[in-house]
Amino acid sequence: MIKRALFEAIVKSLAEYPVISITGPRQSGKTTLCRTTLPNYTYFNLERIDNREMVLSDPIGFLNRYTKNGLILDEAQRAPELFSYIQSYVDDHKSMGKIILTGSQNFLLSNAISQSLAGRVKNFRLLPFSYFELSHLKSFTSISTDKMLFDGLYPPIYDRSVSPSDWYGNYIETYLERDVRTLKNISDLHLFQKFIGLCAGRIGQLLNFSSLASDLGVSSHTVKNWLGVLEANYIIILLQPHHNNLNKRITKQPKLYFLDTGLACALAHINSADTLSRHYLRGSIYENYAICEYLKFRFNQGLSSNLYFWRDHHGNEVDMVIDNGKLNALEIKSGETFHSDMLKGLRYWQKLTNTPKKNTALLFGGNETRYSGEAEILTLSQLNSWFNTL
Fold first, then answer.
1. How many CA atoms lie within 13 A of 57 on its CB side?
2. What is the DSSP string of 134-188?
3. pLDDT one-digit tens code per residue, 117-138
4. Residue 356, Cβ neighbours under 10 Å: how many?
5. Burial status of residue 378 (CB atoms within 10 A of its CB: 0-12, 13-18, 19 or more)
């Protein structure tokens, strides 16, 4: 079994918090991580109606019976009524790390739930595998970049002998088109399919809600609601612009990315790695991959995102701005041949912000180490090491 980078952070938090929550997209490995990390904890999947009925028929009795030796509640968002009882239980018993909640929805976005667990829960997010987690597998590091982007990083692709195209097709049909759309009572399946496809075609772009609504024939309010559903269910992320006091007008629109490139390829109807290599979205999907790698780097430490992008109204931009007290900037170019024009955005950023050159880097699509006096030049295999220096 492939060890998850989040393992150590979870183990540490068991002694510090009464409740641990692990949210993330379906099939990202949450259940496997919990059951292998805590094999002696009692496990209940609340998607099962019988389990849900048993829990909710006598929540106090249930918690008293099963929490003493440790309890894992999978897909906990299915029983929101339970959270207030969990609050009372942990306040009364003062024991640490005995209740583990998992979910494919970010249930802590609910005000009622977040208030119930405020100060009592440590929240972790588990995304699909990172490059770092798979880097010891020769079968992974030997594949081409296009193959990696096309296959994506969901665990079933690497744990089982399944075709990525078949797996993602099933994932889209059984989860995105069935479960996710029912959360907002979206009755028109064809329209929702079109919406998700249009999102895939906008990877890495400034998100114009009105334009997307016009293409769908719905209101901007509807589009925002649907995007909120995809975001809460860890399908997409809306990356926000970094706002600072520079004397330049900066954009206020977010950029849209998917939390897995394989899923994005499937939704964009890219049917092979070879097709991806020639596709107009190839550069955007490469950029999408780097965005996800940094989010995984942060989340696997139990940290929240501090990632932004920067763009002004003249089109000057930097793909990634990392704000951790000091600003670090990363520009992303998918081309395999390095040329100095790739550093244009970073040069502008350095001059505008007085950011030291050591705090800027360029990720490009080549495999050979490059050197530049203007910024650090990175290949994909060096990306995680650069994150560690920040």
1. 6
2. HTT-HHHHTS-HHHHHHH---HHHHHS---HHHHHHHHIIIIIIIIIHHTTT---
3. 888 999 999 999 999 999 999 8
4. 11
5. buried
**What's the token pair of residue 260?**
């897995």
DSSP β-bridge partners for residue 256:
238
Tokens encoding 191: 């329209």
Identify whether the C-beta of residue 257 lies closer than 8 Å to the C-beta of residue 288. Answer: yes
Rounded distance between C-alpha atoms, residue 220 and residue 222, angstroms: 5
Q: Which CATH class is domain 7-125?
A: alpha beta
Strand, helix or coil for residue 361: strand
Are the CB atoms for 234 and 259 separated by under 8 Å? yes
Domain boundaries along the sequence of the chain: 7-125, 131-388
* Residue 58: partners with Cβ closer than 8 Å, 6 or more residues away: none
**Alpha-carbon span 26 to 370, nearest angstrom:** 38
Measured between alpha carbons, how far is 144 from 170 in angstroms, rounded to an integer?
25
Q: How far apart are CA 228 and CA 51, in angstroms?
A: 29
Please report, rounded to a whole number, the percentage of residues in the chain having pLDDT higher than 70.
97
Residue 185 to residue 175: CA distance in whole angstroms: 14
What is the three-class DSSP state of 118? coil
At 106 the pLDDT is 85
Q: What is the mean pLDDT of residues 330-359?
A: 93
Higher pLDDT residue, 179 or 258? Answer: 258
**Gap between the Cα atoms of 206 and 261, Å rounded:** 18
- Locate tokens 């997010």: which residue? 125
Residue 338 has pLDDT above 70, yes or no: yes
Q: Nearest 5°: CA angle at 352, between 314 and 306?
A: 90
Q: Is the pTM of this model over 0.85?
A: yes
Distances (CA, A) of 75 to 193, 233, 387: 25, 12, 32
pLDDT at 1 over 60: yes
Residue 224 buriedness (CB in 10 A; 0-12 / 13-18 / 19+): middle
